[in-house]
Automatic annotation (TrEMBL):
InterPro entries: HCF244-like (IPR044256), NAD(P)-bd_dom (IPR016040), NAD(P)-bd_dom_sf (IPR036291). PANTHER family: PROTEIN HIGH CHLOROPHYLL FLUORESCENCE PHENOTYPE 244, CHLOROPLASTIC, PTHR47128. This is Uncharacterized protein YbjT (DUF2867 family). Residues 8-136 form the NAD(P)-binding domain. Gene3D superfamilies: NAD(P)-binding Rossmann-like Domain (3.40.50.720). Keywords: Photosynthesis, Photosystem II. Pfam families: NAD_binding_10 (PF13460). It comes from Amycolatopsis magusensis.
Amino acid sequence: MKPIVVTGGTGSLGRRVVRELLDAGREVVVLSRRARPVADGSRFVSVDLRTGDGLDQALTGVDTVVHCASTLTGGDEQAARTLIDAAKRAGVTHLVYISIVGIDRIPLPYYRTKLAVERQLEASGLGYTILRATQFHELVQHIFSLLGRSPIVPVPTMRFQPVDTRDVAGRLAELALGEPAGRVPDFGGPEVRDAKSLARAYLTATGRRRLLVPVRVPGRIMAGFRRGENLVGDRFDGEWTFEQFLAEHATRRPSRFTDAGGSGG
């Protein structure tokens, strides 16, 4: 069997995809700009997708690529063009891409970039599979870790369907081991939660007490989130809840303030 390449294979999602593929008995090549520890049994290749240096060699003899590399600082569209061109030259037959639920309905700049990459794949002529997932637990934790620095925490009136990278990685690995399927059904977490309940869960897990204040943020972006465009709605694929994630990843700190938010949503 030919090796499977995972771009961004040292990231929070990518490294779990690597482990899933290794556990399935596949040889895995990890591509990343920065050398970091990778899963035992995988092979690391330093490649900058923006320039393509070293990419042709890394894709030699490869049929399948799982594209997890992404950055909020820009360059994803260029990286995708570079990867697609190299994949064509190498004869890659299947490119699997992780995207985000609601990118065609919420005008967030990063979402527009993800949608543009989807369009590139659709027009590439390559066999491809696109999986859109809801927000990762790590993102929700990061949001409330920043907001929780203040004694008064503004909580946007919106909902999340947070999903664990372990669940998403398992699905991506399953797709990578199969045939190209185009855009497959969206992948959602096990629960739809309002932001206030998630904030309270985070504060409880970290031993903080804060005043939670619901805030209705204006604008088209937040309107999309309030409509639930970031939710799968009728699918609850993931198994790991936000509380289970926090039990493993949250760091407790001394309590200083009172949560006056009550038990309502």
